[in-house]
Every structure is written in C-alpha cells, then in structure tokens.
Records
---
Amino acid sequence: MAKDYKALADGVIANVGGAENVASISHCVTRLRFKLKDGAKADKEALAKVPGVLKVLEASGQLQVVIGQDVTDAYDAVLANYPLNAAGEVAADPAETKVAGEKKKFDFAGTMADLVSGIFMPFMGAFMGAGLLKGVLVLLTTFNILPKDSSTYAILYAVADGTFYFLPMFLAYSAGKKFGGNPFITMAIAAAMLYPNFAALSSAENVNFLGIPVTMISYSSTVLPIIVAAWLQSVLEKFLNARLPKVIRSIFVPLIVMVVVFVAVVLVVGPVTDIVGKAIANVIKAALDAFPLVGGFLMAALWPAMIIFGVHWGMVPIVMNNHAVLGYDYILPLTVGTNFGIAAAVFAISLKSKKAETKELAATSAVSAFVGGVTEPAIYGILMKCKKVFAVLLLANGIGGAICGVMHVTRDVMITVNGLTLPAIAAVYGPWGIVAIVVSLIAGFLAGYFVFDDKMMEEA
C-alpha cells in the first residue's frame, strides 16, 4: 500500500513544534534534518511514533528524523504543504537554533561530523556514479570487451575520471557554502590550483613568488588544500566586508580574497597539507599493515555502530586523502561485507517473524540495504530493537573485515557497495572481497534467523 506522505509530513511538523518553530529543513539519504528555533517545543517521543518515522536523533545542532529510503518523498511533501526555509535558501542563525535555557556547549565530534557531511554529502552522488563507471571500465577491460586504447574507452574514462581529477572544484563549492564564504570565489581559487600553466610549474626549476621559494605539489584530486583555503577565504571575506565601504565591496573583496588566499595556498597551505595528508595516510597504513587482522575486524564490526552516531563521516576525508596520496584506499574495503551482512540479517528476520508489520519492515529494509546500499532503515527500524541480533551481526561482519585486512584488500576507485554493483566489486576488490561478502551474507543470515525472536520487537 502506498504511503500517505502528507500524513507523514503533518505528523512530523506537528511534533517538531509546528512550522513556525522550524528555522530550516534539509535531508540526507535517509533523514529529515531540522534546525529548530526552540528545541524544547519538539515532542520527540510523539515524533518517533508517527507512522513512517524509524527513529529520532539529536546531533550537530539538528533534530534528525530517520525516514529511510522514502526520505525524498517525505521532504517534498513537507515543502509542498508548509512554507519552510529549505536548506541552501536561508541558513538558520545559530542563536535561533539554540534550545531555550540551554547553555551552548562545544561538541567537537558533532561539529566535525556536521562539517564533513556538509562538505562531502552534496556531491557524493556524482562521486559514486563516477566511481561505479570506473569499476565497470575495469570489468570491461579485464575481460577484453573494451580495449584501453580505443576512443570509446577514452570518452567513457573522461566521464569516470573527471570528477576525481577536478575534486577540488566540487569541494570548493560545498566547503565555500559550509564555511559561509562565497562558493564561486572558492571555485575560482580551486580553478587556479588546477590551471594547466600553473600545474606545469611542477616541472620547472626555482619556482618563486616575489622571490619567495615555492614548493610545488599536484593539486588534482586533493582534499585538504581547498578545504583549508575555503576556511581562510571565509575569515578574510568577513573581515573585509566589515571594514570596506559598500560602494567598493563587490569589486575589491573578491579581488583581494582570490589573490591573498591563492598565494597563501601556494606558499603555505599546499605544502603543509601535502605533508599532513601523506603522514595521515602512511601512519594509518602502517598500523593496518602491522595489525591487519585486528584492524580489519574492528573496522568492519564497528562500522554499523559508527553509522548510528554519524562517526562514519569522519572516514570520508581520510579515504579521499588515501586516493590522492596513495592512489588507492585500504580503509573502506574492510567494510565491503557489512551492507550485505545487514541485508541478510534483516531478510532472515522477515522470514522468521510471525508479525506482519515486522515482516514488511524487515523485507523493505533488506531490499534497501542489498539493492541501494542504504542500511539506516535496517539499523534503526530493526537491529537497534533486536540488540542480541545486532551484537552477533557486528561480530559476523568483523570476520569479513578481518579477511580483507589479512589479505590486504584495497580499491583504487570509489564505488557504491550493493548487490547491483557486485560485478564491479569483483573487478575492483578482487576475489577476497567477494569471499568477505559471502562470509558476511552467511553469518548475517544465521544471526538473524537463529537469534531473532518476535519478543525483541515487542520489548523495544
């Protein structure tokens, strides 16, 4: 039966304190994210009971309502029925989102999670699409279906690799907006970093700026330099906007910011972040090389728990830095089996449960995890209520991670991990990645089928 998204929208808005209490609304893959003027007006218990809502969380100064794979439909229904400020149109003032009577506390983990998700999430669809195309090309060339020296390959590879090469441009727009600067000025700085004549200076000798020696690095595919540049830009923009007359502001602020920040990147930010990026990649790699079994087990076992708290976003810049520095990643391959383990566990629950509601929720959650790679509905809707199943599943997924760690499974492209991308996964991750997936599937199904009991859902 089709969902009544208007009823869902009405129930959600009524329990966040009404439309007048919403400073802004946005959404990610599975959650509606509200910034409220007065958090005390939200009835979280009643909100969690609204049909269609899987869970209610508070993180990063937001009230987050977990909907699942239907979140886009729910978001559209809210905006269609309520005159709210959608994300990107009017940003909520921090003072307005503060809960009445609550002292403002600095939450480092929450702030970092919000920062990373705000910068990387907007372009993740394009990034994953390009990565999947790379995986398909690997598959086609491996089986000699498409020659690497053909023009067809060159055209398709341009689509696949362009996003990675011009990664600083994507980061520039989202980071510029996140830090409160003009995102197009940030993009102009990124464009200068990637400008062919500037990049060609890497092969020149004695490069300097006004006599100051310049350490040239390659900025294509980099992550850290443009993010730091975006922050510097936002600080300088605010400083100049507060001091320059309005008459000349629109001309001189962009000019000064672009020149000063780009020079700062060339002289300091680029070389320093290059050293930091390489150090991070090499230290983590050395740790995993030294303890591959333990590292692989812990990474895969804790991954679903990291999703619950949003900590998994902290891995994104590290993973992208690995691709930029090493040309491959060794962290996310450890979790290749987790989506499949989760899907198998909730599928087993859908088979074993005698409750129609549990069967339906578990089955749709299994499809979401297996086909779309979106596991939040399974985690929030089923597994967090079935703690014994969840605990056994974490251990089961850890086995797959340990296998990947010991066998040094890596990937040189970013691709989504789900049932539809299995051929590409086989080509990119190799046979041991598939072994880890099979282990997680079998162990996850056994955990769900033999540990689950309908009483778990009733007691939750």
---
Amino acid sequence: MNVDNETRKNGLSAIHSMIVTTLIIVFFVGIIIIYYFMLYSETKDNIITSGELDAVSSAGQIDKYLSTGVDVIRLTGYTLDNMITEKRSHEEMLDYLENQSVAAANIMSGNATGIYAYIDGDYLDGVGWVPDADYVPTERPWYKDAIAGSGDVVVVEPYLDAQTGTIMITLAKTLCDGVSVVAADFSLEQLQKITENIVLVGGSDMQFILDEKHRVIAHSDKNEIDKNYRKEEGTLGHAISEQLTVTEGRFFSLNHGAKQYFVYSMPIENKWLCLSVIDTTLVFRRLALPLLLTIVVAALVIAILLFIMIRSDKKSALAEKMKKLADIQTIYAYYDQMTGLKNRRAYSEEFDRLSKELPKDCCVIIFDVNGLKSVNDSMGHEAGDELIIAAAKCIRAAFGEQGDIYRLGGDEFCLIMTDPENKIPGCLEKLDHAAAEYKGKYLNGFSVSYGTGLYKEGSDFGALLKEADKNMYENKNRYYMTSGRDRRSSPRS
C-alpha cells in the first residue's frame, strides 16, 4: 500500500511539474502573441498612413494640374463672352484664341494642345487645325457635354491619342449665348509623371488614377493605361475595382492570389479616384515568421517535456516495481510466512546488534506453546499450524506495538522490548486470558509458557536470554505439574 501511495505521489508530482512548466511556456507564448498583434497593428497603421500620404500628395498635385486647365477655360470663356457681347468679329476671336493657345501651352508646360471654339456656326481653332468637310462640331462629345453642363466647366471623357499614346482630356464650357462653346485639349502626361514619381519616392508599390467608369487614366505601370478594370476578369485591377464598389471608407485590405494588398483611395476632380496600393505580403510574413517559430519551439519543448515525463514515469514505475519486489523479498527474508512475525534471521541480526550495545530497561520474554507435539500427533499438522498461528495472534494482541516479536522455531517465540513502566505483568495476564478463551476450528483454548529476562546493571543481552529461558522452563514445568498432564498431551481438545 505504501509503495502504491508513493507511486501515485510521484506521478502527481510529475504531472504538477508538467502543468506548471506548460503554463509558464503558454504564458510567454501568450506575451509573444500579444506583442505580435501590437506590432502587427502598428505596422498596419504605418502602412495605411504611408498609403494615405501618397494618395493625398498625388491627389493634390493632380487637382492643382486640373484646376489650372479649368482656370484657362474660364478665363478664355469670360473673354469670349465679352467679345460676343461687343459683337466682335470672328477674325478677332480667332486671333484671341491663337494667342491664348500659346499662353496656355506655356502655363501648362506644353501639355495644352490648343484652345478652340464653336461660335455662331463657325469652328475657330487656336492652333490652325482645319477639320475635314464631314466634321460637325455640334455632334462632338466636347460640344454636347458642354451644353449639358449649363455654363459649368466639364471634363469630357478621356481618350487615348493614337499618335502619341497619351491619354487626353477635354475641358469645355458654354458661352453666354447658350449655344456657343469653348474647349481645350490637355495631355495627361503630367498625371502619368506624378504617379510614377510617387512610387519612386513614396512607400507605395502602385499608384494610379481611375475615372468614374474605373478606366485607368494614369498608372505607375504604363502598360495599365487605358484599361477598364471594371470590365476585366481575374486581375488585381478588377479585384480593386470590385472592392471599391462595396467599401464605404477610403482604406481596405485585399487578398489576391497569394499576396495581400493595402489600398487607399482619394477622390479628386470629376469623380475620379487616386489610389495607392502597397504589397504587404513580405512585411507581414516577416512579422509572422518569428511568431510561428516561437509557437513551433514551444510545441517542441512541451513535446520533449511530455516525452521526458513519460520516460520518467516508466522509470519510476520500474523503480517502484523493483522496490516492491525488494520489499517482498525482505518480507520473505525477515518475516515468518505462517504467523507474519519476524523470523529467526531477523532475530539473529537483532541479537548481534544488542550484543554490542544493550539499551537500559531492555527486557526479553521467551514464549513456548504448551502441547504442540501432542496436537500434531493426535489432531494433525493442520491443527498444529492453527495452534502456532493462534499463539502468535494472542501474543501480538497482548503486547500490541511494544517491542518486536520473533518466531524462533516451531513453538517458540521471543519478545524484545524496553519496559520502563513495568507493563509486562499486565500484558502477560492478557495473553493468558486470550489463550484460554480461544476457540478455533480444531482447538478450544490453549496455554503458553513464558519466562522473562530483565535488564540489570552490568548485564549483557546473552544474560537476559539465559534468564528468560530459565524462567520459561520453570513456568512450563509448573504448568505440567499443576495440570497433571504429560508434556506430550493435547493442550485442550
């Protein structure tokens, strides 16, 4: 039972250690995970801020460029309104348009290709372009959009110049008579330079401008110019276009293929959008790698601890088994199998010890069961065994935990104890009563002869044994003399 308790105790201790170690590991892994998410959040905010700054910077430059063109059209329209009111000739108006076209080209750094107008049924071109005979100004988009704009400057849908490969836009405005229109074409090459420069000096991987229909007006990658992302399928541009239609804010993240992107959009003139796109795949992968390695290491440590604990448990179990086996061997070596008392081998070792150093108040009692031989002869050895076992039980019951009881031979027992309080007489009386009242399978009461050897100043253990043995035989002789029985007869049958 003690071995089992010790095994259980060791097992619980190992489990407790494992739990504590695991909790410590989980605690530190938890701290690392929290730190990771804090770092992730901070990195995300920095990326969003970078994209926002790029988009705002780009949008500001684009708005400034477009507003300059708007100012040119408004100023030209204002002057033409005065000339119409003053009923100036078309020649004067054409001369003004030619001068204004030169001025606009200078103001717009060569990106204005000329100012033209349709006044009182005549087409006037500031750069001298002469249209074909089938050219009808009132059917052109610049004229129709301007009329629909009711006096406001409108941006006509951009178009790709087949000769230069440049995206062009037209700004147009109706004049005071409500039927005349002034317009100018502007190259968006400057917008292309803006997007390319933002990518070079900023934190974005892509920068581009979409019109209201999600057509690419300018892009840091020139190969994307004039594509309609809304009509494409399976491309990153199409994925961004779709996300723009469902996102209310200016920022969103997007997974496309095996990559992750952060996109920031900024509205500009004419319902256009300026977008900054940042590829965050490698950034967050670098952040996730230490976290993943930490979790893997923690898992390996826990696995190793489990392995060690299992091996330790197996070793402990084996050790406990060996200890239990050793205890069993000790029991067989030092205990009498019939009575459970210590045997003669244990007595011999105790004899040697006490022969060297005899404690004060030490006493020895020798017991001899009366009539064992006659019981064996008349009733059989099973009855004799019952007599020996009964005698051992009665002696143990009478003396309790006081001293050690040894079985020295067939019917002979020895008790070695210290008796400073002189309890021996009372214990012997209990023994006599218990033996006399015994009732078993074969026996109905029995008796035990005994003799005591008490410590005396200067005596040794051998002297105590001789005294006890002498007193026991005297007691046994008195028993047979008073009972009138032969020493070979049954005790009580």
---
Amino acid sequence: MFAQNFYDRATLQRIEIFFGFTNWDSQLDAATSTDTYIIADSLELTELALIVLE
C-alpha cells in the first residue's frame, strides 16, 4: 500500500495486529512502562470503502 493513499477520506483503513501469545495486552502494558518492544506475528491492512449517506 502506498503512503499517499493511506489517508484517503473516502477509504477507511482497518489495521489488525496479531500476537502469538494470549497475554498480549499485559505484555504491551508492561512494555510501555519499560520502553521496550513487543514483536507481532503478523499485521493486516484492509481498505474498506466508506459510504456517505446524505
């Protein structure tokens, strides 16, 4: 995906981040306080058309 199209007002971006462990939330909280990184297993970006009803 090109950065120029990422902020298109007519398109909504869904960003999903997948972790290989079940306690990902507490690991992210702990990483914030220690300024460390948590490695994700995968990342999915999906473009969704935005329909405006008038």
---
Amino acid sequence: MLPNISNHSWDSSGRPGIILTKLTIEFLLGLLADGASVEDIVSSYPQLTAGQVSEAILFAANSSL
C-alpha cells in the first residue's frame, strides 16, 4: 500500500497524484526522465519528501498510467 498516492488528482486531469499536493505521478516521472534527481525534485517542491517521490516511482512501476 502506498499511503501518499491517490487515484483522485486535485487537478482536472483525474490522474494519480501525491496526496495534499497538485503534483501528478506523471509530472514527477517527467522530471525524473528529464534528469532531475529525487533531491532536485524535493528542493524544487518543498511540499514533497523523498519518500513521496519514491512512492511515485513505485506506483508507476506497478501500474500502467
């Protein structure tokens, strides 16, 4: 179970995202694909923790977005 992930995004996309943020899993994966490290992401989005980014990666690995 991934407690920080919701299948109900707070934006209009309806895509899975991090609870209590407006950041979707897809957005975070895009940052990683563009070369950002987990530390870079947490620095840029202080509402996130490294654990939440890790959960996003795990969620993506176990689902088809």
